[in-house]
Amino acid sequence: MEKILRTIESARRLLVTAHAEPDGDAVGSMLALGLALERTGREVVFYNESPIPAVYRFLPGVERIERRLPEGAAPETAVILDCAGFERVGQAAAAIARIPCVINIDHHASNPGFGTLCLIDETACATAEIVFRLIGALGIAPDRRIATCLYTGILTDTGSFRFSNTNEAAFAVSLTLVRCGVNPSEVAQHVYGSYSLGRIKLLNLALDSIEISPNGKLSMMTVTRAMLAETRTQPEDADGLINYARRIKDVRVAALIQEQPPNGTEGERPRLHVSLRSDGSVDVAEYAAAFGGGGHRRAAGFQIDAGLAEVKARLLGWAERMG
Ligand SMILES: [Mn+2]
């Protein structure tokens, strides 16, 4: 923490980024830290390779997030937030690796500790909790904008204070953030209040795709490109749909298998992204790690170059081995 504070204090130009296909913690953490650093007169580039999900587009500063690294920006320091592995920043990983100092701030237990400096606290409920502490240690009092970003990170990563990572700090930090001007009902309305018609139609198709393993321990939900095209939705509209598959009685692990957007090469087979959620009795991070993925005991994911049928067969085989 001390070294990170000194490094950030001495930097004039910084890049803040988070994992591709960002969730509320990724977007909230990068905006909060970036806005706080700008308040102290530093130049900040906000970068994320993916479109920001519609439900997070209300966040202050969200219009500043670039999907391409601006040419000639030359930041001295990059702060990578909420990334279980360096490659999670996406295609700009190689360019970011050339930035002289890379700071890795995260709460995933599987984080290998990449970067020049790292601050990994797996007991933190969200990366936003760590960013809150960091901003405080830099002597910056969060204003309403910064507080709203941090609160959104904590709210979404704890599943509205329902998941097992909901700790004392989730409430203590949230109390401070509310005192800084956050309006919890307004944030909840943005994040959970409204679904577009397309997203409801996608939910319908996704629910219809649910398959359960013969022993009832695993549920699988599939979102294909054809479903997105039919409902005129974007990949990020599938965010959170896995929770429906997870809530089924007696299911221990839910898997969301999602076809990835095309990479532009002719005749390519869609890559699949598999998100896993567990009730805590099965370590899904361990399973994901076998495919080069990562995450937490109860929430993890990986990418795989294989057909849908093959991936389903593998998952079903795993379900059979769940004691
Ligand atoms: Mn997180």
Percent helix: 25-40%
Query: How many helices in DSSP terms?
Result: 12
| Mean pLDDT figure | 94
Topology-level CATH name of the largest domain: inorganic pyrophosphatase (n-terminal core)
Q: Write down the domain tally.
A: 2
Distance between the termini: 41 Å
If strands are numbered along the chain, what order do they take across the biggest sheet? 3-2-1-4-5-6
Task: Assess the beta-strand content as a share of residues.
Answer: 15-25%
Q: Which ranges are low-confidence, i.e. pLDDT below 50, for 5 or more consecutive residues?
A: none
Give the bound compounds. Answer: manganese (II) ion
Q: How many runs of DSSP E, i.e. beta strands?
A: 12
The description of the largest β-sheet is: 6 strands, parallel
The CATH architecture assignment of the largest domain turns out to be Alpha-Beta Complex
The CATH superfamily of the largest domain is identified as inorganic pyrophosphatase (n-terminal core)
Q: What is the H/E string?
A: HEHEEEHEEHHHHHEEHHEEHEEH
Category by helix and strand content: alpha/beta
